[in-house]
């Protein structure tokens, strides 16, 4: 589970893009411990869009049968 959810991250990044403050100011305003986190979110959204802030689904792993099939192949 991530510390900050998508909506919170989006709100912080939108505040930055609207010119409400710099990285440090927004980190203090929203109660984020490090301003580097805000910087990373802003750069990520600028490069990849807001959907990049969403948590990615993890791969559940491979079944034993699949692994054996690969070895036998």
Automatic annotation (TrEMBL):
<dbReference type="InterPro" id="IPR052057">
    <property type="entry name" value="IS150/IS1296_orfA-like"/>
</dbReference>
<dbReference type="InterPro" id="IPR010921">
    <property type="entry name" value="Trp_repressor/repl_initiator"/>
</dbReference>
<protein>
    <recommendedName>
        <fullName>Transposase</fullName>
    </recommendedName>
</protein>
């Amino acid at each position: 589970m991530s510390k900050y959810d998508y909506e919170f991250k989006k709100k912080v990044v939108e505040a930055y893009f609207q010119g409400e403050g710099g990285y440090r100011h927004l980190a203090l305003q929203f109660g984020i411990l490090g301003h580097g986190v805000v910087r990373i979110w802003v750069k990520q959204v600028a490069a990849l869009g807001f959907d990049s802030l969403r948590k990615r689904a993890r791969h559940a792993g491979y079944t034993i049968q699949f692994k054996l099939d690969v070895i036998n192949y």
